[in-house]
Amino acid sequence: MGRAVFTGQLLLGSAAIRPIDPLILSQTRTTFSFLALLPLLVGLHGWQRIKLPARDLAYCFLLGILGVAVSNYFYYVAIQRTSVATAIIVQYTAPVWVLIYVVARRQQRLSPQRVAAVALAVIGIALVIGIVGVKPGAGPNARPALRLDSYGLIAALLASFSFAFYNIGGHRILARYDRWRVLVWTLAAAAAFWLVVNPPWKIASAHYAPSQWLFLFVFSMISVLGAFSLYFLGLQHLEPTRAIIASCLEPVFSILLAARLLGEVLRPIQTLGIVFVLAAIVIVQRPARAIAAEEKSIVVEPIE
User: Fold this and answer.
1) What radius of gyration, in Å, describes the C-alpha atoms of the chain?
2) 42 phi/psi in degrees, rounded to 5
3) CB of 111 within 8 A of CB of 289?
4) Please, what is the Cα angle at 283 between 294 and 110, to 5 degrees?
């Protein structure tokens, strides 16, 4: 949906919705979700349901700005300037960066299984973005070079690093508070940050049409509140590791939908790269039994 609205391909009735900038999409996504989630939690359980000590509140604000706000923005920039496949595959390397971090900090042991996961992810990214496997040249058998927007690719990498930061930083606080409490304050931080970056008078000057506001609201409810509600429901019936492995189907569905609905074309070499990255994610999330018995793994689920 994001890619469609960036490129003017999203229809509401018989008319296409005018393209929306990634900044306003990121801003309204967190702001609308916060405004919907806050009264729901407070109304059902009171302010005690979301109360946090000042130190932990500041910590959530750091996660909300550097994790949620930054990652959302760069992820949508990547979708706008490259493709859904490139953006989501590069973003979904976040578990690999988390693994590298915790191994470097000696919080987990390095194993051949994990080395293989990192290698697969790096090779997969290289295939997806065309660093290897596509040879430019002349002649009847030459293959055209894969051209990608460099800024879009950098944005995808920044989004991936930001997701990794969110999960590393959020691991400690999620061990002490439930996810909804942490989520509502990280969304609050992201919403406040965007109000400073893009204040209301700038939004008003853009003169967004009612159809655009309708899309922004529906998109927020589906992609944040709806998605998280279903994911948390799944966690009630599945172990976290199994739930995360199942969530790896998200890039597959996104890429297939983009190909079917938006006409995005994948080269065979890119498809192979996507398979490599997905395999790396599954390997990272399924540590060896002997190691898993001694370690407490960090759960990684990107917030898109």
Assistant:
1) 20
2) -70, -40
3) no
4) 50
Q: Which of 119, 14, 29, 26 is nearest to 72 (CA)?
A: 26
- Whether the CB-CB separation of 163 and 250 falls below 8 Å is answered with no
Of 102-106, 212-216, 226-230, 284-288, where does the model show the most confidence?
Answer: 212-216
Cβ pair 94, 71 in contact under 8 A: no
Between 118 and 203, the more confident residue is 203
Q: d(Cα 292, Cα 165) in Å, to the nearest integer? A: 22
233 token code pair: 């429901």
The Cα–Cα gap between 260 and 4 comes to 12
- For residues 194 and 70, what is the distance between their CA atoms, to the nearest angstrom? 10
Q: What does the pLDDT read at residue 248?
A: 65
Task: State both tokens at 186.
Answer: 């990280």
Q: What pLDDT, in 10s, does the model give residues 262-277?
A: 888 778 887 888 888 8
In whole angstroms, give the CA distance from residue 255 to residue 264: 8
User: What's the pLDDT tens digit per position in 202-238?
Assistant: 998 888 888 889 999 999 888 877 777 776 566 556 6
- Residue 231 one-letter amino acid: Y
Neighbours of 223 (CB within 10 A): 18
* Amino acid of residue 113: Q
DSSP for 151-168, please give it.
HHHHHHHHHHHHHHHHHH
Q: Residue 3 burial by CB count (10 A; 0-12/13-18/19+): exposed, middle or buried?
A: buried
Contact 72, 190 (CB under 8 A): yes
180-194 tens-digit pLDDT: 888 889 999 999 999
Please name every residue paired with 197 in a beta bridge, in sequence order, or none if there are none. Answer: none
End-to-end Cα spacing for the chain: 12
- Model confidence pTM above 0.85: no
